[in-house]
């Protein structure tokens, strides 16, 4: 008896994918883009934050970042043999290996740059006559016996020092080496003998056997104590006159010779200098790093180190200050980046939901028929979930892989979580949207037009909830600034969402207002286009929401970037005073201005004389006095906007010289009475404050006086600086023109210096990428919405053309039909962006991302609306809408009415 074969049924997923391969491919591409963007964002943030942390550690220098473990000399009460054994290399090495284990995770060390040894705590003066004495004081010598000297230096002259036989506190002489810089400054040669004072015995004779060159001078081995490689010219305090000076150099003893220091007056101590491994530092571990440092300085780490070395051991480091300053800078930048992340993420989520909504709308008849034939809601949602998952899951994995390859540095966990969230949203959006639309069984799916459907109570409650949340976020941001919770980051996005919901409420009213006037126009195109716009499906809510959210985020983000650029431009202008400047401590040679004018890119040269030591007779502090030619300098102030004035206001006549003063100087000396000013060359001039200005190009400080140079006597009236304007003059060419006697500064170079940390530049790049990605997805949403309506519009045009509609009228019909919603999105996005910026600007501080932590004349940078950021995205939306409608009308006209009618009937 043969078994009955079951009927072969085509699987749902395979059938649906074969029926619409283009839609499946487009959906897969969308998920790949969204998943790759989501996966790349957290790794990009990790990358620039890690780079910023390492940059901060590098800027702090090893003398601040190394962990200094120091123990005093062995107890003098111990026998001499035990004291010597405690400072020998074997004992120090054993303790070094154990001390390394006291450093807790995640603070990793770099053994190649770490060092241990014995050093003198006191740097005595030495009597040797061949050592230089700049002001008659003898040179001082510091003794160090470091480990690994042969691995970190190469011998230029002579050989490395060594110890011949056992060395103790009574040894009369030892060998040593010096670096090339020390040898040059202290006149030390191979074979020189330096006598270090001792206690109760003749001086220790230290014979130099070699001159060394550090292999890595900037590394922690040589830079934790910089005088190991570079001697210091120490200036001693003096009540007046030329202060006494003396040289302080270092002699590098072999580790085996360390016991000899016990017999000198150097008061030796044992040390273990631990260099952090900068490449292993990660910004997400900053809090744990600070805890690890605190444990070393005054916690369990210190107790373990004392148990392993000496009970008097002390640990110190400046790493905690470095981590704190980095955290402070990151806390000022991170909220701005989170605003871009939330805005872009919202746009991506809306586009995914909109794609699902368009797909559900396209298949509404099919799904309604399945429900009418008995398909349960869970079964229908499950089939749709399988259909989307078979496309979305591989696409999400591909997007994640692309993100990991595109940004190879950073944590993988957050990237996987972000890509998984995108994939899950893509998988569930269509089933949930279909289940919500077809929860009630109907014979056919009813068409719901945006202008005809009244908002439900649930929608009203949801909109009111969002309104309250947006108001709370805006209030929190204005009150607390960008240091609040994640609700603050949602403020710009919520503003755009509220604007979108408000415009959707107003959209039907606006269309009804326009229908009456349009009906009185000649021809049916205007009336028909408004009627078509009024029949827009409710599924158009999400495209409009995506557009408004993206436009608001783009306007906000563009204004942030424009504010950053403006702050840096302003700070560079305040520092330089013009496009470039030349400064000299003495009067410039007479030929320099002419040579500078001949440099390509220089348009105008304004000579000024600056006396920084000018002092009012009845004042306590000096005031920089600037002598200018009123006409050219006045034109420069007008061009730069720094304290503009007219040349006539500084014209000198009889009596006191009229002066332009800063507010602080005017407040101290008044604007009514003249006062006498003593110049650094011994001359004097009487000035009267005629104008008060907040700034001036020649001086970047808060105190200044500007007078006509014609009223000064020589040499005070000779130019000491040149202020240059032009088209990006080159610093190198200017340097050749002025020679070595002057300093050249260019405004463009100064501006580039203000992004002094990868944390700032990286955040700016990520912010820009987020804004561009959000705008790209918004354009994609607009294209998807227009393409979804393309078949219906093509069939409509074909039918109307059979009734006599011309090609020009068809093109005008499609454009007028698309314009209401495009104009609504453009105007609404512009207003929402402007409103968000005006509402949130009191709580947004751009200083952290725009300017360096120190050294900038501009102390604050605030957010202001940027016209280009507000209008350009809106214009692009309108132009894109008109362009798509025009292209569709042209393409439909080429195909012919019969072809379109057949295609429309087939659909």
Give a verbal description of the structure:
The chain is an alpha+beta fold and 907 residues long. The chain has three domains: 19-45 and 327-568 and 757-906, no CATH class; 67-316, no CATH class; 585-741, no CATH class. The chain has a ten-stranded mixed beta sheet with strand order 14-17-18-16-19-15-13-20-12-21. A seven-stranded mixed beta sheet has the order 8-9-3-2-10-1-11. Strand 6 (193-196) and strand 7 form a beta hairpin.
- Report the oligomer: single chain
Strand content: 5-15%
Beginning-to-end CA distance, first to last residue: 48 Å
Number of domain units = 3
Q: For the CA atoms, what is the radius of gyration?
A: 38 Å
Which spans have pLDDT < 50 for at least 5 consecutive residues? 902-907
Mean pLDDT: 83
> Judging from the principal axes of the Cα atoms, what is the shape?
flat
Spatial order of strands in the largest sheet: 14-17-18-16-19-15-13-20-12-21
Fraction of residues in H or I helices: 40-55%
> Total number of β-strand segments?
21
Largest sheet: 10 strands, mixed
Count of DSSP-assigned helices: 29
Quick summary of this structure?
With 907 residues, this protein is an alpha+beta fold. The protein is 53% helix and 13% strand. 45% of the residues are buried.
Keywords:
alpha+beta; about 900 residues; single chain; seven-stranded mixed β-sheet; ten-stranded mixed β-sheet
Protein topology:
Blueprint: H1 12-19, H2 21-60, H3 62-65, E1 67-72, H4 80-86, H5 89-100, E2 115-120, E3 140-146, H6 149-152, E4 153-158, E5 173-179, H7 180-186, E6 193-196, E7 204-214, H8 220-223, E8 232-235, E9 245-252, E10 268-274, H9 286-298, H10 300-308, E11 314-316, H11 319-362, H12 364-372, H13 377-406, H14 412-437, H15 457-480, H16 486-489, H17 491-519, H18 525-534, H19 541-576, E12 580-583, H20 592-597, E13 602-611, E14 615-616, E15 625-628, H21 630-640, E16 657-661, H22 663-669, E17 675-678, E18 684-692, E19 705-708, E20 721-726, H23 731-738, E21 743-746, H24 747-753, H25 758-802, H26 807-840, H27 847-850, H28 867-895, H29 897-906
Parallel strand pairs: 3-9, 5-7, 15-19, 16-18
Antiparallel strand pairs: 1-10, 1-11, 2-3, 2-10, 4-7, 6-7, 8-9, 12-20, 12-21, 13-15, 13-20, 14-17, 16-19, 17-18
Helix pairs in contact: 1-13, 2-11, 2-13, 2-14, 2-25, 9-10, 9-11, 11-14, 11-19, 11-25, 13-14, 15-17, 17-18, 17-19, 17-26, 18-26, 19-24, 19-25, 19-26, 19-28, 25-28, 25-29, 26-28
